[in-house]
Amino acid sequence: MEEQLLTVRVGPYLFGAPVTAVTEILSHLSVTHIPQTPDLIAGVAVVRGQPLEVWALWAPLGLEPRQTALALRWESARGVSLVAVDAVESLWSPGQPLARDLWDSLVPPAISPWVESGYRMESEWLWSLAADLPDRLQSSILGGGRLAAG
Amino acid sequence: MEQPVVSDSAAQAHTLVSLIGHLLPGFRQSYMEDTELVLMDRDLRVVAVEPGQKIDLGLKVGDIPPAGTVTEQALRTGRVLTELRDESAFGVPYQSVAIPIRQGSEILAVLAVVTSTRARQSVKAAEQDLWQHAEHLAATAEETHAAVSHLKDTFQTLARQAAVIQSQMGSAQQFTQTGTGAVTALTEHSQALGTTMHGVRTAREALEGQVATISQSTSLIQDIARQTNLLALNAAIEAARAGDAGRGFAVVAEEVKKLSEGSRDATRHIEETIGGIGSRLSELSQAVSAAQTAQGAEQDMSRQVAANFGDIGTAVREVAQALSAIHDQIGAATSAIEQLSAAAALTAEQATQVTELATRLQSAGNGPPARRSASTNKNLR
Predict the structure, then answer these.
(1) What is the pTM of this model?
(2) Segment (H or E) for A129
(3) Which residues contact B119 (CB under 8 A, 6 or more apart)?
(4) Cα separation of A74 and A21, whole Å?
(5) CA distances, B275 to each of B200, B215, B363 (Å)
(6) What are the CA-CA distances from residue A30 to residues A39, A44, A53, A71 (Å)?
(7) From B19's CA, which of A110, B85, B180, B311 has a CA 20 to 30 Å away?
(8) Contact call for B233 and A6, based on CB within 8 A
């Protein structure tokens, strides 16, 4: 299958989510915030009767937390979860990725471990997120000891 | 009377003078005026006296009058002499005519015919007074006639001017009525404009409501477009995940996505258009408010002007009525002046007649006066 990326925006940043992992875009979510959880967890949303954890990248990107409007249904090895985004743009078929040393210093350090590749899309940088993003987020919480209270 | 026989001339003269003395009463009857007859002999001794009805010099038979009289001169000169004397000699003014009575070349006696001039002087003075009064009356009548004529001319001029003003007041009334009609029409037009402005405001409010409805519909369409876009993206994701089996589905998803983007662009354009309409509606609202304010002020001014025209009309009517009354009074005054003028003319004519009468009277006495004649007043007719 030709690799395609779903381009999304979180704040001013442009990311690419691999369609091999993203199965659906969800809107009009009702997210319940859970106290005493890390900033990476926006809360829990019930999708078709199934409670799913909602991940958010606002805090590591230095952005103010906000109401979740859109989220990507993301399937990984651990199961299904949601990743909150601000906007969804289109499907994009990337070319050859750029060498990491060309863009690694430009990526916000907090999210660098979750970025798989870097691309130039028109006049912007696009960073493709790792297909196992939720697993890496989980690991960063559990392994990195970043259980800051939300 | 016994007639003595005398032999000498002195005796005859004495006798003759005595006889003449007896004729004096008869002589006096021949004078119409009050006259005293005094007969004196050659010695200027009074021989006979016949006093008048009023005039009486107080001489008695045998008296000798004071020297220097005209009688003495007549006796000396043998001529008939006349003199006028004032009242210093005998207490009355008189005219004395001394007539020598001759027998041949000898003067036997002198007859003095003494006539009182007091009555004549009184008549003359009365004539003079009458003439002066008549002349004064004529002059007064002339002045009165001139004054009345001037007054008549003045009132006639006043009447003409009043008629002109009345005519102009009629024009002013017409102008006032025309102005009132114009203001009334302006007021009605302003009211119609106010109604129209109200209609414009109502239409604007309705249009704003419809624009709000369109905006709501646009938001709904935008939301649908967003949902459609998400649906297309989800379809595209499914197609991509399906691999080659999902390519046809991916094409449909892409077309749906383009439609949603077209809808989004169209709704954005509609929103921009609605924004422009909203700006224009806001400007229209401000313009309508300004127009309503101006129209309200115009209505107030129209009402004020209409009230002013009403006041002017009332004033013009009152002035016209006053002018009519003045015109009537001028007419009455002119009529009275004409009567006065006729009376003045009649007075002047009568004054002329009196003057002529006085002139004739004076002419009959001492000749015409060297003063103005009665014909002076002929121009009064």
Answers:
(1) 0.55
(2) strand A124-129
(3) B33, B34
(4) 6
(5) 20, 9, 124
(6) 18, 8, 12, 11
(7) B85
(8) yes
